[in-house]
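Hi, here's the filled form for the chain we discussed.

Project: internal
Contact: R.S.
Residues: 381
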Amino acid sequence: GFGRSRGQHNKGSLHEIGVGKPQEKRSQLDFHSQFSGICENGRSARLHCPYSLPPKCNSLAEAQGYIYLLAKDQHGCRFLQRIFDEGIPQDVQIIFNEIIDHVVELMMNPFGNYLMQKLLEVCNEEQRMQILFMLTAEPGELVRISLNTHGTRVIQKLIETLKTRQQISLVISALEPGFLALIKDLNGNHVVQRCLQCLSNEDNKFIFIAAAKYCVDIATHQHGCCVLQRCISHSMGEHRENLVEEISANGLLLAQDAFGNYVVQFVLELKIPSAMSNLIFQFEGNYVHLSTQKFSSHVVEKCLVVFNDEVRSKIIRELLSASHFEQLLQDPHANYVVQTALRVSEGPLHNSLVDAIESHKAISRTSPYSKRIFSQKLLKK
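And the returned structure, exactly as it came back:
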């Protein structure tokens, strides 16, 4: 809304999901002190987990056989991450062997997810393929993990670290059936965005096709409207054309929606001739109605800013010809449209607008909304 708050939903920034604080180098002493409370003897350990952790665990060698349990423990997870930081392939393999059968569970674990993110950074390609096979063996599994608060972080890391054609194909095939669920989910939408950022235009084709197909459903959703804009930004050629065409074809509907209006404004800013023509055709004759609605009034303001002088003049004349123009001045939403019209208009048209407003000065001065028009230095000819 043009540098001011008018009660529109604030999309906020789509912050990246990190992988936690960097870990310091491991030391046997640190590991022992962290675990002294739970590893001193079998009895104490059994109080903390269903299976006892190793007594007096001072090294990876002593932790063997218990690595899966350690991965789900706050301190144990940190200890294992430090081993990954040292990057010794043999140590990575030892940990990998004990957790590979539990990767799905660990990805959705509050502590295990950090270990899995770190593993994806240090594992070799054979190990990465084994992880991928575990994640894609059961249909819907990868989507389920992506929708999880902790799992989404790991799947984003997985997408960042994909190396081969086979790996990319496995992930795309697993995500595609759950596209709509992902893009409309608080956690899942970040996975779609990571695909847009990390994969090629061709690899992201499944996203662009589905986004165009479910355009209205996605555009009118809290999370979907943000991702749809990013789909347009990352797409090229026919995929971008199709997306923009679908959005502009539904422009009148979307302009009046709490979230869809953002998408229409985004498309207007692109100034693509075919989309502009489509939106101009739909909006013509509806500007008065759109100006008095909370969400679409923002779209009308955007039209006044981005359209050429000829179209801008038509919009202002349509507003001036309203049967009760004074009501627009007193409307909680339309008054902002009038202010924008005053700012962007010039010459005789601007003077006509000023005259129309001045003629209702007595009535409008009593309205808290029209006061804004008169209080600003917009009525100069």
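Let me know if anything looks off before we file it.
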